[in-house]
Design brief:
alpha/beta
């Protein structure tokens, strides 16, 4: 079972636990404060939706920290200057329907030029396997790096199915951004795709007998959209 400890030789960043080189747990106080309200069963839908957006924005900040930079010359109001800009990065954001859509605006608020793809999956409650019902991805995904959005990384089956789709479409690299992860889901993703970087706000205790993360925050889709 995965243990949340820093990797020898990998620096411990401020407010970030680098659990493994491909797993980042964001421990910033703002993230953890907002997450506490997401976990609270009494948080109403309108606030839950806003909090998901805000947490996703903060996670995206961390997920994009390794984007390549190049120096460019610009004209400020006072003089010419050399400044850093992201170097030719093309991104596709791919939320897993339906709950992943609640994270989409948080990413697009920082990466407004990203193309968007959608991956529709639901979980078979008997087998806990992911069942695909809809996929629509950017036609130029082979020229882009993909950010997959799946708020709850539980068994990992849905996330792996989504990664399968973006990889099959030729995505150059994949980052998985989730809000709450279980060790079982992390291990499942990395067993299939050890190069995928997972960025999350929490690594919870594990799964219950129904395959839900505990303590978790419940069904993210139901809480986002007020359904049961």
């Amino acid at each position: 079972m995965l243990e949340a400890t820093a990797v020898p030789g990998v620096p411990r960043l401020h407010n970030v636990r680098v659990v493994t080189p491909r797993l980042t747990h964001v421990t910033h106080p703002l993230v953890q404060h907002k997450l506490s309200y997401l976990r609270d069963r009494d948080t109403p839908t309108v606030h839950f939706r806003k909090l998901v957006d805000e947490v996703t924005l903060l996670l995206t900040y961390e997920a994009t920290k390794d984007f390549p930079i190049e120096e460019v010359e610009i004209e400020t109001p006072l003089e010419r200057a050399t400044v850093p800009r992201i170097s030719g990065k093309k991104v596709a954001v791919c939320p897993v329907l339906r709950a992943g859509v609640g994270m989409l605006d948080g990413v697009l608020s920082l990466i407004s030029s990203a193309r968007v793809g959608f991956i529709g999956l639901y979980r078979d409650e008997e087998t806990l396997e992911a069942v695909e019902y809809y996929v629509k991805l950017p036609s130029d995904l082979a020229e882009r790096d993909a950010i997959v959005l799946d708020p709850m990384l539980a068994t990992g089956n849905s996330s792996v199915a989504a990664i399968n789709e973006v990889r099959a479409a030729g995505a150059r690299s994949v980052i998985l951004v989730c809000i709450v992860a279980a060790p079982e889901g992390i291990e499942r993703v990395h067993a299939e795709y050890p190069d995928v970087h997972i960025v999350c706000a929490a690594i919870d205790r594990g799964l219950n007998e129904h395959g839900f993360i505990v303590p978790g925050l419940g069904d993210a889709g139901d809480r986002l959209y007020g359904t049961k």
